[in-house]
Design brief:
By secondary structure, the chain is an alpha+beta fold. The chain folds into three domains: 2-141, Alpha-D-Glucose-1,6-Bisphosphate, Chain A, domain 4 (2-Layer Sandwich); 156-242, Roll (Pdz3 Domain); 255-410, Four Helix Bundle (Hemerythrin (Met), subunit A), CATH 1.20.120. 45% of the residues lie in helices and 24% in strands. The protein has helices at 23-31, 33-39, 116-141, 146-149, 163-169, 187-190, 210-217, 255-277, 282-286, 296-319, 333-342, 346-365, 369-373, 375-386, 390-410; strands at residues 2-7, 10-19, 43-46, 53-57, 63-72, 76-83, 90-99, 102-112, 156-159, 177-182, 198-202, 205-206, 225-232, 235-242. The strands form two sheets. The chain has an eight-stranded antiparallel β-sheet. Strands 9, 10, 11, 12, 13 and 14 form a six-stranded antiparallel β-sheet that branches. A hairpin with a 3-residue loop joins β5 (63-72) and β6.
């Protein structure tokens, strides 16, 4: 429900929705930075006390700043709001009223002026809060983030891209997204995109980083056709691509059963690695196909780092205190070199990888009950843990390429 409020010299909007969750859970969703990212924004930093800061940002480029002005758990939250491009500061009051079948959430956003300068801000705020409350209801009632479930996908894995990599690959730009892999059966593979291609544009909208890509995709539906501009080496190309439906795993809501399912998948990955390395020599596994490319050992070190990173992320989500990143960041060569230096043999690296995956399995089984009760947080953990293994399979193919390069050089 939405309605327009007015007062002397100012305008206000009011948006309401009945959410099947207790007031305390909804109050938490407005006063925890991790939870705010699960339904409202893409990045947040807050200090939930009167006078405490409130910074929210979206991949679209919009952001707002303000401070909490009123906190009455679990009934009211108020904060000031100064959005990018808006003429002046406004105020937001969130009221939570317990009902027979949940909580009536009412957001009153007041202080909008009149005239052309304010018209856009008023309409965008109304639409934003309506969409936000729909997403809030979904994450609290089912765990699903509608911004993810409704967003189509290209089916790509990402790789590092910087000026040095662009120079070595002969790509005349250093801004864009470089493909690590294309998932079988998805739009990117069907369009003929390959590892190493650098995406720079979709339908005349520039792709500069992962955030810009997700923002573009949020404006599309599965089945839409888009024109993708990309570089393959020095050659600029374009191709029509059909966006794929996002394939999300069925969430296993019991953490112990979730850990067992993940353990089974890791066992398959471990077997694939051991089978691959069975006839690979230490020298072959240490060979770099080119200066900017990893050896098979370094790729395996990266898989170990991926496990450690996932464990860190699970810990942050479970405690509701996530780090803030501008982007994914690049993989640090010194880090993979350091891991290989400490685990110098194939056997050492395989053992380290298997210990890392075993630790992930144990972590999932031991998730605290408070984390599993927060459906939105648990949904994120479970979907990430059960996602398609194309990141692993892409890197396994990368290892094969590195070893084949070593054997060709040796005339084997």
């Amino acid at each position: 429900m939405t309605r327009q409020l007015s007062g002397p010299g100012a305008q206000a909007i009011s948006v309401s929705r009945l959410v099947d969750a207790p007031p305390a859970q909804i109050y938490y969703a407005f006063t925890n930075s991790s939870c705010l990212r699960e339904w409202l924004c893409d990045a947040s930093q807050i200090a939930p006390h009167p006078g405490g800061r409130l910074y929210l940002a979206w991949n679209s480029g919009f952001y707002t700043s303000g401070e909490y002005t009123r906190l009455e758990p679990p009934a009211r939250v108020a904060f000031s709001w100064r959005g990018r491009g808006e003429p002046a500061e406004t105020q937001v009051l969130v009221t939570l009223a317990s009902q027979e079948h949940g909580t009536l959430v009412t957001i009153e956003h007041a202080g909008f002026g009149t005239g052309a300068d304010w018209e856009k801000a008023t309409e965008e705020s109304r639409a934003g809060w309506q969409k936000g409350l729909e997403s809030l209801a979904s994450v609290l009632e089912t765990g699903e983030d509608l911004r993810i479930t409704r967003r189509p996908m290209m089916g790509i894995g990402l790789s590092d891209f910087n000026e040095e990599i662009a120079r070595q690959a002969g790509v005349p730009v250093s801004s864009g997204i470089r493909l690590d892999s294309a998932a079988p059966g998805m739009g990117a593979e069907a369009a003929g995109l390959q590892q190493g291609d650098v995406l720079v544009e979709i339908d005349d909208q520039p792709i500069t980083d992962f955030a810009s890509l997700t923002n573009i995709l949020q404006g599309h539906l599965a089945g839409d056709r888009v024109m993708v501009g990309y570089y393959r080496g020095p050659e600029r190309r374009s191709v029509s691509m059909e966006l794929s439906r996002r394939l999300l795993p069925t969430v296993i809501w019991d953490p112990v059963e979730l850990s067992r399912a993940v353990a089974s998948r890791y066992a398959e990955a471990s077997q694939a690695l051991r089978s691959f390395f069975a006839d690979v020599s230490e020298a072959e596994a240490s060979h770099r196909p080119a200066a900017a490319e990893w050896s098979a050992k370094e790729v395996l070190a990266h898989l170990i780092h991926s496990e450690r990173g996932f464990q860190d992320n699970v810990g942050e989500i479970a405690t509701g205190a996530e780090s803030v990143y501008d982007d994914y960041g690049e993989n640090l060569l010194a880090r993979v070199e350091a891991t290989v230096a400490v685990y110098p043999t194939i056997a050492d690296l395989l053992a380290a990888y298997e210990r890392s995956t075993a630790e992930t399995v144990a972590l999932l089984a031991h998730l605290p009950e408070e984390a599993t009760r927060r459906k939105s947080s648990y949904w994120r953990v479970a979907t990430n843990a059960l996602e398609s293994p194309f990141h692993f399979t892409g890197h396994l193919a990368q290892m094969r390429t590195a070893v084949e390069s070593a054997r060709q050089g040796a005339g084997r």
